[in-house]
Amino acid sequence: RPDLAAALRELRAQYEALPARNLQAAEDWYRARCASLHERAARSQEAVRASRREAGECRRQLQARVGEMESLRGAHESLERQLQELEERHSVEAAGLQDTIGQLEADLRNTKTEMARHLREYQDLLNVKMALDIEIAAYRKLLEGEENLFSMGSVGLPAMNPLPNPTYSFQPRSSTPSF
User: CB atoms < 10 A from the CB of 34, how many?
Assistant: First the structure.
């Protein structure tokens, strides 16, 4: 029996040691699992913090871009208004210049017409002058002929003039020159 009692005690000690070992193994597994979960939680928290930082940075960048976009939109609208004002001003200036060009062209036509009229008058006066020069030359020749007659002497002067009254009977020619 003692062997049996000793074997039973040994068995009992083994059975009592087994739950203690199982308890120790369960505690070790639990601690390892908790450490693993704590490590994962720490990594997840760090990832969440990094995501929050990144989200905050993205939010700040988005706000900066929105502000920049609003600023650019305002600048664009201002430039559009300036462009429209410039186009209106240039169209008014262009219309004014077109009016000035039209007025200058009308003045040029009037000046050309007036020049043509003056040219015709000048041509008419030139024709009259030439006719007068021809008449003057004819009178000059007549006077030279008379002077030659006077220089030859006053002999036979009444005989040369068949008219009873010694006056000139020269008729002026027309104003057109005859060549």
Answer: 11
149 Cβ contact list (under 8 Å, min separation 6): 157, 160
pLDDT in tens, 96-107: 999 999 999 999
Residue type, 140: R
The encoded tokens of residue 97 equal 């210049």
List, for residues 122-132, the tens digit of each pLDDT value. Answer: 999 999 999 99
Residues 133 and 176 sit within 8 Å (Cβ to Cβ): no
CB 170 within 8 A of CB 142: yes
Question: In a 10 Å sphere around its CB, with 0-12 CB exposed, 13-18 middle and 19+ buried, how is residue 134 labelled?
Answer: middle
- CA separation (Å) from 93 to 87, 88, 90, 107, 108? 10, 9, 5, 21, 22
Query: CA-CA distance, 80 to 88, in Å (whole number)?
Result: 12
Residue 154 banded pLDDT, cuts 50, 70, 90: low
3-state helix, strand, coil in the chain (%, to 5): 85, 0, 15
Give the number of other CB atoms < 10 A from CB of residue 140.
10
